[in-house]
């Protein structure tokens, strides 16, 4: 487990949360409703079986400790909070203290290395020049400036990526599957998972990552 910077706390409304409430043996799944940075986080009261409902509410007294975990881009983020208050009207909500410290555990199998490699992606039949901003044995982050009408791309779409690192000539191609899409203005970012790659490409990526990791420690 590592401790990410609290300034990077990112838990938007709708994020799936796992709650461990002191005094209760079970974990409860719910959703984040929102937060006020530095003040509080609001979670929806989870759907409860009749047999556990009374005990659940009994443990939501002020200052009782709650461990909160959620998934953010392949990383499990966790923190300890205290109950502020539980309300029923107008909706059943739990108010928790804002985290003072975060812990994280990366679920991805391979370490990612930050980089800045020119590349080109074929997205929905359109060639988009851009940059590979991080790289691992299993995937990468591709970033590009797109036209005012960007190409339509969705999770699990197939994307073809070209990068000089993938082979001895600029036409070497590598297939990927879209696992994350972020569009802000004309800036498009795609989190890609590589499909089966030819041995020369695999060797080139491994060599680059080994060298980068030996320098970065």
Automatic annotation (TrEMBL):
Listed Gene3D superfamilies: Electron Transport, Fmn-binding Protein, Chain A (2.30.110.10), predicted glycosyltransferase like domains (2.40.10.220)
Keywords per UniProt: Bacterial flagellum, c-di-GMP, Cell projection, Cilium, Flagellum, Nucleotide-binding
Molecular functions (GO terms): cyclic-di-GMP binding
Segments forming domain Type III secretion system flagellar brake protein YcgR PilZN: 13-99
Keyword hit for Nucleotide-binding: yes
Higher taxonomy: Bacteria, Pseudomonadati, Thermodesulfobacteriota, Desulfovibrionia, Desulfovibrionales
Originating organism: Solidesulfovibrio aerotolerans
Record flagged with keyword Nucleotide-binding: yes
Superkingdom classification of source: Bacteria
Listed Pfam families: PilZ (PF07238), PilZNR (PF12945)
Alphabetized SUPFAM superfamilies for the sequence: PilZ domain-like
Record protein name field: Flagellar brake protein
Domain PilZ: 107-210
